[in-house]
Amino acid sequence: MLMSSQVESFVMHCGEMGSRWGFNRTVGQMYGLLIINEQALSAIQISEALNISRGNVSMGIKELQSWRLVQVQHKPKDRKEYYTPAGSIWEMAIRVFEERRKREVDPTLSLLRSNLLETPNTQEALFAQEKMKEIHDLLETITHWAAELQSLSPEKLNTLMKLGAGVSKVIDMKDRLLK
């Protein structure tokens, strides 16, 4: 499978972004390749396009499945499995956010909750606990806000995002009116 320079550029960039999204370069490239192709791809096609081993493809597919980012398709009279992105770009973004929350934010919140249950016995411990409480409260707020955003339809979420700084202006106006 030959990629145009434009597609190859996108796929390679997805590989570089993979580590920022929470998975390795090869998995990022695989996902980029799947996103940019109209047709579902077999493991052999992925392997050939990215010049990686079938074993590497198999491990990458398992990783993408654990993130719920790919789905398997079968074609009539063909024993091979074909892979395609699971859902829209919006759904992909939500899944990546959910998985990162589960893998990064939730364990941090658990640790903070546990530490906040202990009674500090020094001024340093009290200061540290106050900072941990601030971090906990911020993460809780972000988590609840994100959950509310995830319940919105892509259309409403897109409209909200386009409002951007306009929301801040409305809040400022409300504050001025209440003075």
From TrEMBL:
It comes from the Bacteria. Residues 29-80 form the HTH marR-type domain. Pfam families: MarR_2. InterPro entries: HTH-GbsR_regulator (IPR052362), HTH_MarR-typ (IPR000835), MJ1563 (IPR026282). It comes from Colwellia asteriadis. Belongs to the GbsR family. Keywords: DNA-binding, Transcription, Transcription regulation. This is HTH-type transcriptional regulator.
